[in-house]
From TrEMBL:
<dbReference type="InterPro" id="IPR030679">
    <property type="entry name" value="ABC_ATPase_HisP-typ"/>
</dbReference>
<dbReference type="InterPro" id="IPR027417">
    <property type="entry name" value="P-loop_NTPase"/>
</dbReference>
<dbReference type="Pfam" id="PF00005">
    <property type="entry name" value="ABC_tran"/>
</dbReference>
<protein>
    <submittedName>
        <fullName>Amino acid ABC transporter ATP-binding protein</fullName>
    </submittedName>
</protein>
<feature type="domain" description="ABC transporter">
    <location>
        <begin position="2"/>
        <end position="237"/>
    </location>
</feature>
<keyword id="KW-0067">ATP-binding</keyword>
<keyword id="KW-0547">Nucleotide-binding</keyword>
<dbReference type="InterPro" id="IPR017871">
    <property type="entry name" value="ABC_transporter-like_CS"/>
</dbReference>
<dbReference type="GO" id="GO:0016887">
    <property type="term" value="F:ATP hydrolysis activity"/>
</dbReference>
<dbReference type="InterPro" id="IPR003593">
    <property type="entry name" value="AAA+_ATPase"/>
</dbReference>
<dbReference type="InterPro" id="IPR003439">
    <property type="entry name" value="ABC_transporter-like_ATP-bd"/>
</dbReference>
<dbReference type="GO" id="GO:0015424">
    <property type="term" value="F:ABC-type amino acid transporter activity"/>
</dbReference>
<keyword id="KW-0813">Transport</keyword>
<comment type="similarity">
    <text>Belongs to the ABC transporter superfamily.</text>
</comment>
<dbReference type="GO" id="GO:0005524">
    <property type="term" value="F:ATP binding"/>
</dbReference>
<dbReference type="InterPro" id="IPR050086">
    <property type="entry name" value="MetN_ABC_transporter-like"/>
</dbReference>
Length: 243
């Protein structure tokens, strides 16, 4: 599904990702945790080519992202992404936001597209906001719309880049519950960058702990949270507050 082989990423002279070797299989729910600036968001952004790599090889759905001839638009049809700040189209209502990509990219008939969009909005709990503009709904509702929009393209892989970091504390749980529902009800592969440790412990099949651009630990969720192997992971877990 996803394979990193000695992947390197630089921002100028700053070495953002060091020798990343990682394999993610179909159906896994993988959570990336670690201190701010550890490379978590950079790592998942390389998977749909929002960030390029400067060394090594990255294979996603049998497509070689280190090959400049690989079609990024084709790649992104299979790899959805939910951003920190929603990125909804402000001039389109909620329903239109969800319908747009299937209409333009997949050419789904309009009635079928509308039926699918309403179903997805219902699934994430915002069907009653279908005709509202983004400015008329809360941050938590916007993020749920963004999740529905990503699901509308039936991605094989869904990336979440700190999906609750821009939300008020009282809105965090509603978004986390939607993500939990999605990951537990399908065989879609999910990679989630989060600082919500209680959620990570509950939803992840596997936890990857990063620090200073490197993978420090990669283990199943239970083992990582109960018996972290490295001093650095133990130190990190001792300082965080479980949500």
């Amino acid at each position: 599904m996803v394979e990193f082989r000695d992947v390197q990423k630089f921002y100028g002279k700053f070495h953002a990702l060091h020798n990343i070797n990682l394999q993610i299989d179909q159906g896994e729910t993988v959570v990336l945790i670690g201190p701010s600036g550890s490379g978590k968001s950079t790592l998942i952004r390389t998977i749909n080519r929002l960030e390029s790599i400067q060394g090594g090889k990255l294979i996603v759905n049998n497509q070689d992202l280190s090959n400049p001839k690989t079609d990024s638009n084709r790649l992104r049809q299979d790899v959805g992404m939910v951003f920190q700040h929603f990125n909804l189209y402000k001039n389109k209502n909620v329903l239109e936001n969800v319908m747009l990509a299937p209409r333009i990219v997949s050419h789904i008939p309009e009635e079928e597209n509308k039926k699918q969009a309403l179903h997805l909005l219902d699934m994430v709990g915002v069907a009653d906001k279908a005709h509202n503009m983004p400015a008329q709904i809360s941050g938590g509702q916007k993020q749920r719309v963004a999740i529905a929009r990503s699901l509308a393209m039936h991605p094989k892989l869904l990336l979440f880049d700190e999906p609750t970091s821009a939300l008020d504390p009282e809105m965090i749980d509603e978004v986390l519950q939607v993500i939990k529902k999605i990951t537990s009800a399908s065989d879609m592969t999910s990679l989630i960058v989060t600082h919500e440790m209680g959620f990570a412990k509950e939803v992840a099949n596997r936890v990857i702990f990063m620090d200073q651009g490197q993978i420090v630990e990669d283990d199943d969720s239970k083992s990582f949270f109960e018996r972290p192997k490295t001093d650095r992971a133990q130190q990190f877990l001792s300082k965080i507050i479980t949500h």
